[in-house]
Design brief:
about 350 residues; alpha/beta; D-Maltodextrin-Binding Protein, domain 2; 2 domains; five-stranded mixed β-sheet; globular
Length: about 350
């Protein structure tokens, strides 16, 4: 087993999510930071919109920190937050360098990113949306791709896609740090950049405004990326019993929101739009939620295969004996750690 494969203990929290009843004690605060304000952190937006944290005795203090995934992990390391919502490859790279981070929950098990390019780039290269994948990726040669932060997930994915198109990811593509999705949309429209890498609904919005075209959807064009622990919650080690129980409650709140997403995507999308994306059209948010819901519904497939079989998968009822008992939290959340590092996400990391 490679050393870094031990560092991605996904996810005893998710698998014991239905075992422990919510505590009747006073409300606890769970502090969560996102590196990017994209809708792809879908269960987190849904849990806040539907207020599923309250049922677990929690108050969620969720913020977006400027600077992308690296900034979120820095806040985690400093103790300013309890959990960082980031890309899994960012955590893997940090952990491989010896930083004390551990993945404890899979928010999205589908790579939802899309590469959106300007019509001018397509005209310049003669590439069409219906062309074979390799030809479409070849359009990135010499292009400037905007990202939220250098060294983050978007940067790594842009270079990975370039390599898949036969382009040198270090010398034949330019990556520019632009900022949040609004700034990236503006940069594409003003021709400051040729492309950006973001999750829905950004591609939908660019196509609607005429400033961009969705060229590649990773989870669809690369089937192997349709069942990956892509966006995760990371905690700082060591994780004591008190933190473990806090994370279990958080996972239960997220799972409840995920169940609603799967059952009632339109209604959940509307709740998210009204509370957090009022400037976006309900149509765009509903389209984005439906495009990504499969990543929430299949989260159980990202769990380590050697976790105890008595623990139920998320969304399934626990055995009667389990539901009537309250197991003690583990000193660490990880349990067995035989989940191997997803090779596709490793590829992203090597190119960053």
């Amino acid at each position: 087993m490679r050393p870094h494969s031990r560092l991605i203990s996904l996810l005893a929290i998710g698998t014991i999510v239905l075992l422990t009843p919510a505590s009747a004690s006073a409300q606890q605060t769970i502090r969560i930071a996102q590196g990017v304000s994209t809708l792809s952190f879908l269960p987190l937006w849904a849990a806040r919109a539907l207020n599923t944290f309250t049922a677990q005795g929690l108050t969620a203090n969720a913020v977006v920190v400027p600077g992308g995934d690296a900034a979120a992990l820095a806040a985690l390391d400093a103790g300013d937050i309890d959990l960082a919502a980031v890309g899994s490859e960012t955590v893997l790279r940090a952990a491989a360098k010896g930083q004390p981070f551990e993945i404890v929950y899979s928010l999205m098990s589908k790579v939802t990113l899309q590469i959106v390019v300007s019509p001018a780039l397509l005209e310049r290269t003669g590439v069409k949306v219906g062309d074979p994948l390799e030809k479409r990726l070849g359009a990135l040669k010499g292009a400037t791709v905007g990202v939220a932060a250098i060294g983050g997930t978007q940067d790594a994915v842009a270079r990975w896609l370039a390599a898949k198109g036969g382009i040198n990811p270090k010398t034949e593509i330019k990556v520019a740090q632009i900022g949040n999705p609004v700034a990236l949309q503006a940069a594409l429209e003003s021709k400051q950049i040729d492309a950006f890498v973001l999750s829905p609904p950004e591609g939908f919005l660019a196509e609607k405004s005429g400033s961009g075209v969705i060229l590649v959807s990773l989870g669809d064009d690369f089937p192997v990326l349709n069942h990956q622990p892509y966006l995760v919650l990371a905690a700082k080690k060591p994780i004591d019993d008190q933190k473990a129980m806090l994370f279990v409650k958080t996972a239960r709140a997220l799972q409840a929101a995920g169940d609603e997403l799967v059952k009632l995507p339109d209604q959940t999308a509307q709740a998210i739009q009204k509370q957090f994306f009022p400037k976006a059209t309900p149509e765009s948010v509903i389209a984005a939620v439906k495009a990504m819901t499969s990543g929430v519904a299949t989260a159980a497939s990202s769990m380590p295969r050697d976790f105890p079989t008595c623990w139920p998968s998320p969304g399934r009822s626990a055995p009667i004996s389990a539901r009537n008992s309250t197991p003690k939290p583990r000193r660490t959340i990880s349990g067995p750690t035989a989940l191997s590092t997803p090779p596709r996400l490793n590829s992203f990391s090597r190119l960053a």
